[in-house]
Amino acid sequence: MNKTLPYLLALVMLSSCHALKDSPKYKLTDGIYKTKEGDRSALVYIENAEDSVLVYRLQAGWKTAKPDRKDLKPKVYPSGAVEKEIAASKYWKNTFDLDILTAPFKYRPSTNSFTPQLSNHLNGAVYVGYRNDTYELSYKRNPIGKVSQRVTHLGFSAGLATGIGVTPMNPWVTDDNISVEYDGFIWSKAACILMAIEKLNFGLALGIDHLLDHNRQYWIYQGKPYIGLTVGLNLN
Predict the structure, then answer these.
(1) Radius of gyration (Cα) for the chain, nearest Å?
(2) What are 120-151's pLDDT values in tens digits?
(3) Antiparallel, parallel or unpaired: β 123-141 and 117-119
(4) With contact defined as beta carbons under 8 Å apart, do 138 and 21 qualify?
(5) How far apart are CA 135 and CA 88, in angstroms?
(6) CA–CA distances in Å: residue 146 to residues 85, 112, 196
(7) Which pLDDT score, from 0 to 100, does residue 90 have?
(8) Distances in whole angstroms, Cα of residue 208 to Cα of each of 119, 150, 193
(9) CA atoms of 223 and 101, how far apart (whole Å)
(10) Which of 66, 46, 63 is nearest to 54 (CA)?
């Protein structure tokens, strides 16, 4: 099982990068966002035009209002090169988050009979959480003097994950209560913190595992906490 892990991880990473590239969460797409105007928070609607980003201030009662587009005066941020730098602005939104996670590495603290262990066995989980995505729209000057628009993204999510995996079963991890070696199925539950910087999505998990077969009473890690490094694929 361990020999196939590098290939499985490579496949997950390639699939994740392709999915994240196309995911709207990693782009400043059309929609409602929060922003700061001085010391106050405000709601805005962002619209992407062919050559610019338009930011409309939403007034009280916007849900029922029927504005005339001719009367709207959005802030206009050109998508192409400009003559001088424009002050950066930030926009953010909070959403429900649904991911598929894998923990390529789990750190298990020492037990009475075993030193600390770093495991790398196959596993997968479904993650549900609450997410914040923040975008900074800015204009930067390059070394040859050209000023261009730049949008950077930072995502943060916290939630719970549950799933299944495998773990090696042998005399060493059962205090010599079994005499065979096999891969046992486990059920994992974890609290997770995830972060996305541009197209990278990773995080940490604090969880517990439960062996699902009749040897669970002997497994030294049954119900014991672990810390895991996670890689995620966003589903929504």
Answers:
(1) 24
(2) 999 999 999 999 999 999 999 888 889 999 99
(3) unpaired
(4) no
(5) 10
(6) 10, 63, 29
(7) 95
(8) 14, 42, 15
(9) 20
(10) 46
Task: Extract the residue ranges of the chain whose pLDDT is less than 50.
Answer: 1-22
Which two tokens mark 192?
């997770």
**Closest residue by Cα to residue 233 from 192, 201, 189, 191:** 201
What would the two tokens of residue 159 be? 């939630």
Residues contacting 205, CB < 8 A, separation 6+: 101, 103, 161, 190, 191, 192, 227, 228, 229, 230
Q: Which pLDDT value is given to residue 2?
A: 46
The amino acid sitting at 68 is: D
Tokens matching residue 12:
């997950």
24: helix, coil or strand? helix
Q: How far is CA 155 from CA 106, 136, 171, 185, in A?
A: 23, 12, 43, 33
CB 182 within 8 A of CB 212: no
Letter for the amino acid at 174? Answer: T
Q: How many CB atoms lie within 10 A of CB 72?
A: 11
Kindly report, residue by residue over 212-235, the tens digit of the pLDDT.
999 999 999 999 999 999 998 888
Q: How many beta carbons lie within 10 A of that of residue 36, not counting itself?
A: 12
Cβ pair 87, 35 in contact under 8 A: no
Extract the tokens encoding 218. Answer: 């002997």
Question: Given this model, what pLDDT does residue 84 score?
Answer: 87
